[in-house]
């Protein structure tokens, strides 16, 4: 079973749904996910893809859609969450550093929880320090390390890699050459990794 | 069980997936769907919502996403289909007339089949006449009747009604005050009509 690359950006709203369920899915299925933070805004601006900022009706729908789906999964976010994030790039630099050092998934989960459930924007205080302390990490050293050129450049390189794969939004699940965009395509990606076809659509509940 | 309003526009790509499966879903579930054509382009232009025309990467993904999902459901579209449709408004005027006269669903299904499987743009020849003849209707009278002011105005009125409900894209499934956007939200709409919650998400295959 090939691994699934989970391309995400802290700053993407639907990524909340994926971050909250991915550990459980991985445990139940044995599927390996590689968490790969990137700067989705960099790609979307370059591709003239502005999904919500100038579209209030679509944005209101997005929050309602997330609220309904979160509730069905036992989550209780306080929506709308602060959006867009001012410090999206920095939040993902921290995530990238964390992926290298082994605390990335815990940080991403905790910072999303605080962003969506406590209303604290990710990538800013008090979310950053509280999230890091909650997972046993020391904020000061990480804040400095995450803005060093090596990490900033690595995030840009990962973003270019995502773009070259055809990723244009977050979250995206990549299996070989196939891109699956959106939390609602996670099942497609899992099926593809196993069967090379979307078997679950033949067994839809209706 | 309340009826589900199926707001669609011939011209929407993902609507192909819904049109092709809705009759089977209705039969298996007993769910009543009210097919309501509207002019999605009118709403999207007003809301500055241009999903694909200036976004080649996202458009390429959309076709691949539809191809994978269509294949899983036993469909064999020839993609990409001609897009965007030049005569979107007219195609939906014909659909609205057909809904009033009882041949609307058959026309919509047939015109989508020719658009997606034979590469003939909907709302234009040869698709229009061939689709109507295939369902036993005479094209000439319908072409004239569909452009009469009463039908043109009725399509605008339905479009305004959709917009007032919060519909911003097609297909949309509306259950009471809840909008579910996209073919991939049909299960959510069915669950909502039955349970007022998205029960199927608790029984996801993974």
Percentage of residues in helical conformation of chain A: 40-55%
CATH-derived topology of chain A = Glutaredoxin
Q: Helix and strand succession of chain A?
A: EHEHHHHHHHEEH
Give me the CATH architecture of chain A, please.
3-Layer(aba) Sandwich
Distance between the termini of chain A: 29 Å
**Average of the residue pLDDT scores of chain A:** 96
Number of strands of chain A: 4
Overview of the structural elements:
Two copies of one chain form a homodimer. Chain A is of the alpha+beta class and 206 residues long. Chain A has one domain: Glutaredoxin. In chain A, 53% of the residues lie in helices and 9% in strands. Chain A has nine helices and four strands, in the order βαβαααααααββα. Chain A has a four-stranded mixed beta sheet, sandwiched between helices. The longest helix of chain A is centred in the N-terminal third of the chain and has 17 residues. The two termini of chain A are 29 Å apart. Chains A and B meet through helix 1, helix 3, strand 4 and helix 9 of A and helix 1, helix 3, strand 4 and helix 9 of B.
Question: Could you name the key traits of this structure?
Answer:
homodimer, 206 residues, alpha+beta, Glutaredoxin, 9 helices, 4 strands, globular
């Amino acid at each position: 079973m090939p691994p699934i690359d989970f391309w995400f950006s802290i700053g993407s709203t639907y990524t909340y749904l994926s971050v909250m369920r991915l550990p459980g899915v991985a445990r139940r299925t044995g599927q390996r996910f590689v968490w790969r933070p990137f700067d989705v805004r960099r790609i979307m601006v370059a591709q003239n893809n502005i999904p919500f900022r100038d579209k209030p009706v679509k944005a209101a729908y997005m929050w309602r859609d997330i609220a309904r789906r979160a509730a069905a999964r036992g989550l209780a976010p306080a929506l709308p969450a602060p959006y867009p994030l001012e410090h999206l790039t920095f939040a993902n630099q921290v995530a990238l550093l964390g992926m290298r050092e082994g605390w990335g998934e815990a940080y991403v989960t905790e910072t999303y929880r605080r962003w969506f459930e406590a209303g604290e924007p990710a990538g800013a205080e008090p979310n950053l320090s509280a999230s890091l302390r909650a997972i046993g990490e020391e904020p000061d050293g990480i804040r400095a390390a995450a803005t060093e050129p090596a990490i900033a450049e690595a995030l840009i390189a990962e973003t270019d890699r995502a773009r070259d794969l055809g990723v244009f939004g977050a979250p995206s699940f990549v299996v070989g050459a196939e891109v699956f965009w959106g939390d609602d395509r996670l099942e497609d990606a899992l099926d593809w990794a196993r069967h090379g076809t979307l078997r679950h659509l033949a067994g839809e509940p209706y």
